[in-house]
């Protein structure tokens, strides 16, 4: 135990409590649609924002002071001790990490790798003691200056090789720790100007890189899901994994549509010009839904602010799509969210997660009520009822000439029917 969270009690469900350190909506044992709330939500803490981020922004540097900030393995172990203290306080079942979050960078690849294995062995001991599990691991292939022109898409083959070797080690430690997924996030896989970019070459490199990751996961017997996290723009003008549709096209190009799923982030969906529920619904329709990063952006800012969720209606619509997709299998709800740089205290870190978990719980309950009541799905089914008829199905198996003749023979003059958007919005709001 460390003393960073001294005085903060373990958080339990008590909707009548008069203090802040309680769950008012998240009851992990409450049953919904045949599962407990904990089984539905599968909460995870993001190691990077909670323990590695220093409180900077584009206009200012570090504001946080943490006892684990430093570049030694002793600092890394203090960070781990504190992290697992927090997981215990919150009752968090999972966490997620990048390699660079958990160990200091070495002077050589071999030194960085040795440090990664040392700290993940330490994680293994603490996971066994606490019961906390790994939702997913990943590699940081974007922060170091070597990745300024990308990792898999870099014009320098040596950077590609370094990146591939790093991913191999990160898959190894994820597998060793029983991770349920492995995520690839291409933070720098894009371009700032076409004047120096060969898009065809870079896409081919990225495709082969992903194929290698899948091949290696199979080779070592990794049973978890391989996930790509779509990300538009920021910091580059264009990225090759812009949104769910772009990722699916990429997967189809390289024969990976049955091998790789997506980890969808709310903030990234907004930056791509979509809603979170749009990206979730599309991933489900395409058969590549995997996991989510739950956060939000400030809608008055044009960048990825990674704030903790606080809108029950937004969260409810997201979980409605998750539940419609059958819920999580290996995936879960990772809080890829960070404190505001003025929120300096240990209790701020705890209460940010408490509030977010309560918001998610309320959203989940609303989503379950909507789905179980069935009125939204009944209205959707009624709108497309004609396509379930023999005539509707026959049209899809026909041809233009035959259809043309039928329309003329029947003197068709179809009239539009209301989409009833306002009525359905009113209906959805009744559950919130």
Automatic annotation (TrEMBL):
Active site, per annotation: 98, 101
Cellular localization per UniProt: Cytoplasm
Cofactor note: Binds 2 magnesium ions per subunit.
Gene3D superfamilies: Divalent-metal-dependent TIM barrel enzymes (3.20.20.150)
Annotated binding of Mg(2+) 2, by residue: 265, 268, 304, 306
Keyword NAD among UniProt keywords: no
GO terms, molecular function: magnesium ion binding; xylose isomerase activity
The entry's keywords: Carbohydrate metabolism, Cytoplasm, Isomerase, Magnesium, Metal-binding, Xylose metabolism
Substrates-to-products reaction catalysed: alpha-D-xylose = alpha-D-xylulofuranose
Domain of life: Bacteria
Enzyme type, top EC level: isomerase
Swiss-Prot/TrEMBL cofactor(s): Mg(2+)
A GO BP entry: D-xylose metabolic process
EC number: 5.3.1.5
GO cellular component, one term: cytoplasm
UniProt-annotated binding residues for Mg(2+) 1: 229, 265, 293, 336
Subunit-level organization: Homotetramer.
HAMAP family (UniProt xref): Xylose_isom_A (MF_00455)
Family designation: Belongs to the xylose isomerase family.
PANTHER family found in the cross-reference section: PTHR48408, XYLOSE ISOMERASE
Record-given protein name: Xylose isomerase
Species, as recorded: Sulfitobacter marinus
